[in-house]
Design a protein that fits this description.
It is built from seven helices and 17 strands. With 394 residues, the protein is α/β, with parallel strands linked by helices.
Length: 394
């Protein structure tokens, strides 16, 4: 079996961006039973991937460091429904329903921190695997069944609504394939239905969300606008990340809308409150995963990092940029000779020692603004609750 990096790089495309003819919907009998707790990667009250330690080492510009201990709200007032990206190493077109190390790891890194403020629900689903995507990019027929993956998540969503939600507000969170599935879920199963009023926000980075040029609604979503404030609710946060000095190339898989008259949505989570400030990044201590280069020393002081995450306050900044036909979240490293921290933050998808420019910083879509996203969900949930107090929410 090839490594995750080899499959990922051979495919050169996450599920969210590969256009294929939809497969026939699977039969009802084929859909997993989400009444079974084992069909969930994460559920509240369990010791699972989303309950893993989220402590972070803070490394400051002068090289000093400390540990930020992670704590969760004792009584979360809203829920998060998370759908993970393309990670499965299963040797089949669609994955099985067993959580492997890759699913557990990505949920820990992408969803676990949201548990600071919300109850996290994350279904397992039979996603299109990295192997299937690799074969498709090599010119072979696309064997992965996207409709099966979507049907699984839709069934999990319906199970959650029926037995766990109880009128609570909910944030939808995804990345890459997960974002693509949630985009479809909102468009097909949420917009225009009573449950739409329970959506606090839809956080779906790492996939192209098309909106009409100059507008914040339309295109992929008919009645769900882009977020413009941390007090907005019922809105979308979506973006694709690139280094500021390496914008999307003309043939980019991200940031360029396929439809004429459309642009790719970019909502900067670090600037929704109207205050210009550095991004609140939570980075993997060893790097952005095995598809990227390993992270080198974090500082000239030879900082010893014992946590799974690292914070580098003030080092990274983000802003939405429109350049030609591309729209993306530009990530800048604020290099300073007096700053003792590294100026090189890994996150590019690498192949043969070189970064793939059409991928941008896909691997950092969530980590680079993770702290901003976590606090944004809390701010938006408070705004939602003010309009939908518990007595009226059910």
């Amino acid at each position: 079996m090839k490594s995750l990096a080899a499959i990922l790089l051979a495919s050169a495309m996450p599920v969210g961006g590969l256009a294929q003819t939809p497969a026939p919907a699977p039969t009802a009998e084929a859909t997993p039973k989400y009444t079974n707790p084992d069909a969930w990667l994460c559920r509240p009250g369990r010791t699972d991937a989303c309950a893993a330690n989220q402590d972070a080492t803070i490394i400051r510009a002068d090289g000093t460091q400390s540990i930020e201990r992670f704590s969760r709200d004792d009584n979360p007032k809203f829920d998060c429904f998370y759908v993970y990206p393309t990670v499965s190493l299963d040797a089949s077109p669609n994955s099985d329903m067993t959580a492997g190390p890759e699913e557990i790891t990505v949920a820990t890194h992408q969803a676990g921190r949201f548990a600071k403020h919300c109850r996290v629900f994350a279904p397992l689903y039979r996603q299109v695997t990295l192997l299937a995507l690799r074969d498709a990019m090599l010119g072979q027929p696309m064997k992965g069944d996207r409709a099966r993956a979507f049907a699984d998540v839709k069934a999990a969503w319906e199970e959650y609504l029926a037995y766990d939600n109880h009128g609570r507000g909910v944030v939808l969170i995804g990345h890459s394939q997960g974002s693509g599935i949630l985009k479809e879920l909102v468009a097909k199963a949420i917009e225009g239905t009573p449950v739409q009023r329970q959506i606090i926000s839809v956080i779906i980075p790492g996939t192209n969300v098309a909106v009409p040029a100059g507008k914040d609604v339309g295109g992929d979503f008919k009645s769900t606008p882009l977020c413009h404030s941390d007090k907005d609710s019922g809105c979308v946060v979506s973006y694709v990340s690139f280094r500021a000095d390496a914008p999307p190339p003309a043939n980019s898989r991200f940031g360029i809308a396929a439809q004429p008259g459309m642009t790719v949505a970019c909502v900067d989570p670090a600037a929704l409150d109207g205050v210009v400030k550095p991004a609140d990044a939570y980075l993997g201590a060893r790097g952005a995963g095995i598809a990227s280069a390993s992270q080198g020393a974090w500082s000239q002081n030879g900082a010893v990092v014992t946590t799974g995450f690292v914070k580098v306050p003030g080092l990274l900044s983000t802003r939405c940029v429109t350049s030609g036909t591309a729209s993306y979240l530009a990530v800048t490293t604020n290099a300073n000779p007096a700053d003792k921290r590294t100026d090189h933050i890994v996150g590019d998808v690498m192949y043969g020692g070189k970064a793939l420019p059409d991928w941008g910083l896909h691997l950092l879509d969530l980590p680079v603004v993770m702290g901003d996203l976590v606090e944004l969900t809390d701010d938006q949930a408070k705004a939602w609750l003010a309009k939908n107090p518990p007595a009226a929410a059910g």
